[in-house]
Write the C-alpha cells for this entry.
Amino acid sequence: MCGYIEINGEQQGSIMQDPDFSDYLPFMHPPSFRHFYPAFGQDTNKTLDIVIQTKRFKHQVSATWWFDCIESGEDLLTGARTTFNARNLESPYWRRALKYQRAVVFATGIGESKLIGKTRHRYYMQSNGVFALAALYRAFENRKYSCAVITRDAHPKMEPYHDKAFPCFLPMDAKFLNMWLDPNIETHPEIDYLLANPVLYPTLHVQRVKTYRDKQIMKSTPAATLISDIA
C-alpha cells in the first residue's frame, strides 16, 4: 500500500522543465513542500494533488485521497470501502476510471509500513528527485474530486518494507505520461505492460521512522537504498 506521499518543489528533474507539465505544477512556482495522507476518519479535507487531463487540457487538482466518495452539497462524504489504493484493477469497480480517468501524482517521498511481530514499522522512502506515481480519479458535479493511488503486487526490493503491495511508479517520460493522461486512449500495450510488470523507477533512500511527519529516525534499523530498476 502507499499511505503517505510528499512533494518537495526544491527537487526537480528534466520532466519538470517540459512545457507539457511545468505549467501545471504549482508546487514549483515558487518551490514548496507538501505532504499528504489518506482520508481516514472520514476526513475529506485530506487531499492529494493530482494531475489530470480533461479534453486537451492538463491541470492539477486537489482530490480527496479516498476514491469511494459521494456528493453532499458542496462537499464529499467518504464511503465505507477502503479505497486510497487501487490494486485489483480487473475489478469492475475500477474499470471506468482505468480507461478514462487516469492521473499522475508527482512526489519526492513516500511512506510504507510493515507489521513485524506486534509492532508496526514505518519506513520513509525519499528520492533525490521528483518521480511519478499512477493514480485514478473521480470527478463530481460539485467540482470536487476523489482519487486512489494504483498499487501492484509486491516488488522484491520493497518486500522488506511492505510485502503485500507496491506503488505503481510511472516513467518520467513526457510521451508516456501524456498517453497515460489522455482520456481518449482507453488502453494501450505500453500501459498494459507497465501495469503487468511494475518497475521501481526512482532510487529510494529508506529510513525507519517513528512517524512520517516528524521523520524521527529509529536507529535500531539501519538505513538502506533501493536502487532503481533502470539504473
